[in-house]
Design goal:
single chain, mainly alpha, 3 helices, 2 strands, 9% strand, elongated
Length: 166
């Protein structure tokens, strides 16, 4: 492989890695992994015991049997159709807590920050537009004054020496 082609491949790879979407995705994966342990701890340590006040602390044991009898027969094989809705409830609570943490600790503050920055940018553009409009008004007044002077000084006859033409 030639040196130039190798450098272009590495440059392309670097450009790919530095694109905003890839960096944002990497940050999201790392933060999501970090929150997983926290959320699981909250579900098992707080939500589980609160639900356990009604029944059991372990949500995974909640289930329903569709086809009786549910259990294990003498051969060690499961019998019946057991729906493990407690596991689904546990996973749903974990998801909701994760989504709430991400929204309230990351998305909402970032949205407020970006809105504030956009408001500042718009205010700055408004001042710049006002300055441009003011300059335009002054230039129009100068033009009108020059036209008025030309009309009054030349007595309506174009002598060619009445001043600059606009």
């Amino acid at each position: 492989m030639s040196k130039q082609k190798k450098e272009s491949v590495l440059a392309g790879f670097k450009a790919f890695l530095m694109r905003g979407n890839v960096v944002d995705l990497a940050v999201a994966v790392v933060i999501g992994a970090a929150f997983t342990n926290i959320v699981n701890s909250v579900v098992k340590g707080i939500i589980g015991p609160l639900v356990g006040a009604i029944g059991t602390k372990n949500l995974d044991v909640y289930s329903s049997c569709l086809k009786d009898p549910c259990g294990i027969d003498a051969k060690g094989e499961p019998t019946g159709v057991n729906i493990m809705w407690g596991s689904v409830l546990n996973a749903t609570l974990s998801f909701l807590i994760t989504a709430a943490v991400v929204y309230f600790l990351m998305v909402l503050p970032m949205a407020k920050y970006l809105a504030k920055m956009e408001q500042r940018r718009r205010a700055k553009e408004g001042v710049q537009e006002t300055m441009e409009i003011t300059e335009l008004v002054v230039l129009k007044e100068i033009r009108d004054e020059l036209i008025a002077q030309r009309g009054a000084g030349g007595n309506g006859v174009n002598s060619g020496a009445s001043g600059p033409r606009l």
